[in-house]
Each structure stands twice: as structure tokens, then as C-alpha cells.
Amino acid sequence: MAMTAAQEAAFKAASGNVEPNLLHLLCLGLLIAFLFFWAAWAIVDVYSGWTNQRLKEGAMGRAVVRSVLLLVVSIWMFCS
């Protein structure tokens, strides 16, 4: 849904003359970067537990599948 001219002018005035599309892209970029950082951290954490033999092999596979699924669904939902 597009904003009217009055809504866009009010948004620019309140945000310090920032374009709505630019702010939208910035928020999407931050979300995706955070999700990739979280997924990498989760996989490294599970891998270190697996190498120390505190986790079974199945836990490693499930963590990778869950992380990849989270990234794919989030990108599909928010970036399409």
C-alpha cells in the first residue's frame, strides 16, 4: 500500500528527511544480517558441543536444518 503525499511528507518531517524506501531497505538489511549472524553463532555453538561429544550427531543436523529453514522462510516472508 502506497502512502499519500501528505503521509510521505509527514514521514519525512518526522524522520529527518529520510525516504521511506531507504528506511525500509535498511531495516530489512539489519534483520537479514542479524538472522545470518544468529544462524552462524548457533551452528558454531552446536558444532563445538558436538566436537566435545556433549551432543549427538542428530542434534547437529537438526540445528543446521532449523537455521537454514529460519533463514529461507524469513527471506521469503520479508524480502519478497
From TrEMBL:
It comes from the Bacteria. Keywords: Membrane, Transmembrane, Transmembrane helix. Pfam families: DUF3262 (PF11660). The chain crosses the membrane at residues 22-47, 59-78. This is TIGR03758 family integrating conjugative element protein.
